[in-house]
Design goal:
The chain has eleven helices and eight strands. With about 260 residues, it is α/β, with parallel strands linked by helices. The protein has an eight-stranded mixed sheet with strand order 1-2-4-3-5-6-7-8, sandwiched between helices. Strand 3, helix 1 and strand 4 form a beta-alpha-beta unit. Helix 2 packs across helix 3 and helix 4 runs antiparallel to helix 5. The protein is globular, with a radius of gyration of 17 Å.
Amino acid sequence: MQTVTSRDGTPIAFWQSGSGPPLLLVHGATADHSTTWRIVGPLLAERRTVYAMDRRGRGGSGDGPDYAIDREAEDVAAVLEAIGRPTDLLGHSHGGLCALEGARLAKNVRRMILYEPAIHPEGAAARPEVIDRIEAQAQAGDHEAALVTMLRDMADMTPQEIEIMRSQAEAWEARKANVGTVPREVRALARYVFDPARFADVQAPTLVMVGGDSAPFVRRTGKEVVQALPNARLLALPGQQHGAMYTAPDLFVAEVMGFLEE
């Protein structure tokens, strides 16, 4: 484990594996570096030096007194600066949004891949009752129920996707431990305004991926992000939804590596 200090003084942890050009992985909600990338991380490390960070508030990273997406963007930029050379950037869900915002601050992003970045004007961020239910379940100690509620009602994951995740017992327990961070993230997301003009200077070639079977608003969000970036395109993974890293890891890695090696 290595650590870097973010702009507000929070220590951010990251792990290095593999060999080749550098690739930074930014996980989504409830996750840490060992969960989202549990299957695809080692596959990517066969051809890349993989840096997998723990976002603030979980795993080996510290936390700050006030949560904001801007702080997460600074965390991503701090790890990129610590890597110190042109680096590819891959973010999933809420981590995709953090990666996108971090790319505005960093100077060494070579290429970027965002899988269903969490910009959800029609999703759970617009349903405060879902956030309240997750928070109440977590505070009552029922982390299992809180995690299932988050994955089903917020991430729109199918029962099959959830069962695949549950079958990875160690990662499932880690997600349960992290589920208490979800309400603050989604409340911040509800306040977040996606302004395309802010990304006009993000020149890194970007691939925005979505599941071919994901909800229509997810695909519309992907198109909106692509239109905001100077050099981006959209790719739908056939038959997939929010958890393609688990349900189709070979397909996921093939598309990621195909784009990075263009």
